[in-house]
Input
Amino acid sequence: MDGKMEKLTKGGRLEETKFGRKTGVLLTAGISIVLLLLSLPFFDWVYLKNISALFGKMGISRETASTLYQSYSIFSLLGFVKNSNLGILGLYSMILLLLLMGTWFLHISYIWKALRNRFDNSDGKGMLRLYVTGKAAMLLTILLVAGSYGFVLYSNRFFGMKGFAASPLLAVELIGAMAAYAAIKKLEAVERIRCHEHGLVKEFRKNWVLFLMLLPVGVFFLVNSYLPMVGIYFAFVNFNFADGLWASPFVGLKNFEFLFQSQMGRLIRNTVLYNVVFIVLGNVLQIFFAVLVSQITVKWFKKVGQTLIFMPYFVSFVLLKVMVYSLLEYQCGAINNMIRSSGGTPIDFYNSPIYWPFLITLFNMWKSVGYGMVVYLATIMGMDGELYEAAKVDGANIFQRIRYITLPQLKPTFIILLIYSLGGIMRGNFELFYQTVGNNGLLYEVTDILDTYVYRITIGQPLSIGLGSAAGLFQSVFGFVVVLITNWAIRRKEADYALF
Amino acid sequence: MKNGQKANKIKLSGSDITFYVIAYFVVGAAAIICVLPFLLIVSGSFTDNKLILTEGYSLLPRSFSMDAYGTIFRNPASILQAYKMTIYYTAMGTAVGLFVTTLTAYVLSRKEFKYRNVVSFLLYFTTIFGGGMIPWYLLYANVLNLKGTTFVIWFPGITSTFLIILMRTFISGSVPDAIAESAKIDGAGQFTIFWRIVLPVLKPGLATVGLFLALGYWNDWYRSSLFSTNSSTYELQFYLSNMLNSTTALKDLVVGATISIADLPTQSVKMAMAVVVTGPVLLLYPFVQKYFVSGITIGAVKG
Output
């Protein structure tokens, strides 16, 4: 293999390059297949040695030990952590498992792409992308192997004895991955010269100012978004502050089980139902008002109308809370005031869950219709006026013009907004619910959503952090999957509307 | 309504007239519904507290009284502190945020930056997947140990994917590639191009993004509720929210004053406080509305 590569880098003739490229890619794809097979659960990568001494040292009871006796692979690491209560190994095992999944994904996509590749001489860019996938797969494999060795060393040192051993297969993986990495890199170098592209290092030297300009935002998103992702692990432990994240006992999916047995059904039902109503009713109202406002011809009326409908968007949810309070309060709220003066019996809103789904929907519409209306209004303003004129000349009345000209043209905007809101179907409007309902436990049955539940745990129940994280993780993963599915479906039907 | 019909007099058919009548009526009604709650609060703040307790809130004040405002400003230390802090958070966060957002947007708008799609993806990814609130909170509070500082109140809000993409759209709309390209040929560095060529023509974009940031800071109460350990760092909205939750928070207002807690006009004070807190936003709203409209428009079109 290496001989061919040598020839390839020196060789200048096109045919030769093409031939070398194909062999190189197929060879590395072959290595990739081997690496993938080796990392499937047919082989154990990490196993236990000198078991009785080790278990003695760990303080593991005879019954537990019997379930741990089999040698185990990377796949059973988490099970081992769970059974042995060794939280200290938990996060490490979790990272290994995630790395493993990453390598599987990359290997499979590299093999897939390589086998489907036509090796068409003109498509250098496509080849470069293929190489990037391959390099990433190999790099991740190397990391995985290094991580496994690190795990063995770490746990051995932690127990002060050689209780864990690494299988020789790890060395095979390492050598294979490194060789394939080097080969792909060489292929890539040739390809780069051919299509006048250059790699990260050269790019950085050329445009280092631009990279530097990205530093602040990099720090921000690292701290604010990417580092918290490590905390996903909270969802899998029975967290306590004394042991910290690393050493809290790993409990697998216990948190999720508990959640689903207790309140998850209610939380999901509330979150999803409210969102569905908000999305459907919200979009209908937004389109409705946008169409009406766009048709109004008196300038000042249009301007004032739009300004006032848009106004609630600008105030905080705390102000909404004040309004809700002054409207609904039992003693002196404006609504009960009206009921009393017309001789009815006042309603104790804060003790009657039955009204709240309607009330919250109403508040949300009040606050958000203006924003969406502006979005749709902008689309309407951008439409071609000639169509209307032509339709008018042809005798279409205004209802027909709206139905057959305006609404169809709003469709792309509608679909984009819909995808965005579908992605957030598990994410409730926290501020709306928290500020209007607050900590009124009487109303939780119909107003508690995932976000308010997680917030209450963060603020006041440090012992349930595992549960709260599990709820948050569920929310995140579910939303993510929904986005991927909607986007996939839309790309199949109308590719122009897809987000990515 | 009359004017509208006159303007289109010649072309109006029967169904058109029906439509316009409905349109004017519905839009007018919606506008009124949007304003009514504001009226309720303002009128409540000027009503005598006893009257609220006996007869309830109403849209028009039945008696005029400045008691509530008097109570707030008799002992204004705590609300002034919250005002001061909120202005500080808003100024600091908006300034830093504007800088970071614009720099990033500039880089993403440069065609010669090969990795702009990768960076865009990394930004976009944070909007569809996250670690959840608890890890986020514990990172700031326990790992970075920032609880109780002012930094942690403004830092998490300095930018967002939406604002960066919005700013990038503004930049590619106002600075043609050719200009930046020719400046580069003349020997200008990236930072010079950014500072001398892009920034001066970016005023509408800066105003829009800056106002989005500022509004976000002014209306935030959430970060105070998580990270503030004592009332000297409270955000204004959080201060108001607390005041509504408990009369104990109201007691702050009578410390050292001559009235007792029983005489405190609790209902009207809440309303007056709301007016004081929201006032600046509503006063500025008519003048800055157009920037938000343009921001939302551009943001929506580009996704």
